[in-house]
Amino acid sequence: MPRDNIPPSAMKKLQQFFTKTLDTNNDGLVNWTDFEAAIESIVSKDEAAKNARLKVLRKRLEQHFQKYFWDLCAVGDANKDGNIDLDEWLDVMNDIIGGLKDKNEFPDWYEGLHRALWRANEFLDERNVLKDEFANMLISWDIDEKSAEKAFDFITDHGQKRMDYHLFSEFMKKFFLNETPKHPLNLGLD
After folding, report:
1. pLDDT value of residue 1
2. Per the domain annotation, does 139 fall within a domain?
3. Burial 72-111 (b: 16+ CB within 10 A, else e)
4. In this predicted model, what pLDDT tens digit does every residue of 140-188 receive, in sequence order?
């Protein structure tokens, strides 16, 4: 399948995003084991067992991540082996980027992942997330702190705009659409 919506300048960034944020065990595949590891890094079973609020948060994360994983498999698992390899993921991203270019919207199933990731964080005020809170969220995705802070400064116009879910969603859209090398939106992945 041709990937005509992914510019060559963005290919490395997308490959790095797959490797750092999705393929948590670095086996070249994304499967449920990777999602379980991501859930564990956000809210561990031990923490959830000791705190009712964290137990509920972990359960919700599991539900959202299961839905996202099965939705991802439904649209991207071309060989139906229960895994998403890099080529399959790039095919999915080609379609997602095409949709962003046409409508500036993520598909509902993909937007749901971003909502789940946003809600999984312990922000003091999710309508006005601080730079260090944003950086900590991205550090949990294996993005370095300096790159996360630069991205925050760029997308918030150095704090002039409030970082809320809407701005985070816009940030993610711009991340996938940006073709400028070494831009803060690339999170240091290019």
Report:
1. 61
2. yes
3. bbebbbeeeeebbbbebbbbbbbbbbeebeeeeebeeebe
4. 888 999 999 999 999 999 999 999 999 999 999 999 999 999 999 999 9
Regarding whether 132 and 110 lie in a shared domain, the answer is no
3-state class percentages of the chain: helix first, strand second, coil last, to nearest 5: 65, 0, 35
Distance CA 14, CA 28 (A): 14
Taking only the tens place, the pLDDT of each residue in 54-79 is 899 899 889 988 998 999 999 999 99
pTM higher than 0.90, yes or no?
no
Number of domains the chain contains: 2
Give the position of tokens 């086996």. Answer: 27
Residue given tokens 């550090």 in the structure block? 139
* Chain position carrying tokens 């099965």: 70
Mention every residue, 6+ apart, whose C-beta is less than 8 A from residue 177: 97, 100, 101
